[in-house]
Amino acid sequence: MEVRISESPNRILVALEGDLVGEACGRVRDETLKRLRAKEKRCESVWVDLRRVTLIDSIGLGVLMGLKATSRQHRARLILVEPSRAAQSALDAVGFADLFDIVGLKEAACQAPDLFAR
Fold first, then answer.
1. Residue 19 belongs to a domain with what CATH number?
2. Taking the CB of the first residue and of the last residue of the chain, which one, N or C, has fewer CB atoms within 10 A?
3. Based on the structure, what is the number of domains in the chain?
4. Separation CA 32–CA 49 (nearest Å)
5. DSSP class of residue 100?
6. Rg of the chain, C-alpha, whole Å
7. 3-state DSSP of 49-72
8. 31: part of which helix (H) or strand (E)?
């Protein structure tokens, strides 16, 4: 699992590539939470780019739900960006897709150009 995190003053982008499974999930969670906590409630949104995710297991789904809850505690919105077919299938299989804000890449670029215009 490759994790790339970018930031702007009030947003965080977590771009994932590979399998969001097992031990890799802890690294995704820890790195994202570290950045979110550092913003001290000045973060409006956390964007999780799932375009290049090839597999998500139950631990990965749990991490996404946990990040959503923690983001809300920090008054930030968690947004999933264009889930890959595998990611969308996993979200749909457990009924989580309706629990997340999910946008396509174009919409993400319009809403957060400071993160996606690179």
1. 3.30.750.24
2. C
3. 1
4. 12
5. S
6. 13
7. EEEEEEEECHHHHHHHHHHHHHHH
8. helix 22-38
Nearby residues of 76 by Cβ (< 8 Å), 6 or more positions away: 12, 36, 43, 44, 45, 46
The sign one gets for the Cα dihedral 113, 16, 85, 68 is negative
What are 52's two structure tokens?
Answer: 């290049």
114: in domain: no
Residue 76 located in a structural domain: yes
pLDDT digits (tens, 9 = 90+) for 28-74: 999 999 999 998 778 999 999 999 999 999 999 999 999 999 999 99
Which tokens go with 48?
């999780």
14 within 8 A of 48, measured Cβ to Cβ: yes
Model pTM score: 0.94
